[in-house]
Task: structure prediction
Amino acid sequence: MILLFVLGVSGSPTKNANTDKLVKAILEATGADTEFIKLSDVNIGPCRACMGCVYTNECVVNDDFKWIAPKIMKADALVVGSPTIFGLPSAFTKAFMERLYAFRHVNMLTKGKIGAAVAVGYAAENDVETWLGNILRFAKFDVVDTMSAKGTVCCSVCGTGETCAYAGWNAYSPEVSGRDYGIMETYKGYLEILPDNVPYVKGSVKILKKYRNVEDEPEVMDRAKSLGKAIAVKLEERARRG
Result:
């Protein structure tokens, strides 16, 4: 019996984050040997463009990527999850993805590994989902699929969101962003914007429910489990081919 290994990483700094939960759900559904790494618990900086990895495919920066890199090389599949911050992946996620660059030179050591990605956010998470998938493909991962889900608006739990003119729902409002992110439809039942709210002028909302938990959303969890099972199918196909 071939023991397959799937590595999952989450770029969310939030304790027990929705991103963590989805990455773990994907890992569990693979049925393989798995490991989960929370990037905010380790020290991985961005690529320094020193080119010290060109001839060895080993990053020379002395941080925790040194012990995580062998895990990536061992992994048959990699699952990457990120929250959406200012419409982009988290800095933890971005730094991790940058460091995959060491494996590219000449040999493309990540070529053929299976990849999957999940993005969580209240606006632009679809953009982050696309970005993650594209970077994995750039590193020649065989991307099974990607997914996104809605998460908690940080401004709903900070304590001042109801009266803050610059809260997330105001920042991402069509009046300020010039784009309709569908915030109100997305957060129906979580947030009520009051008539006197004026984005970037006066904040006036009623927070109905602070935290969003993906574990309470069967469709989202089923999507994660399906993604994990798709990884399992791909791994089994490759194992049979030898």
Summary: The two ends are 12 Å apart (CA to CA). The chain has two domains: 5-151+211-241, 153-210.
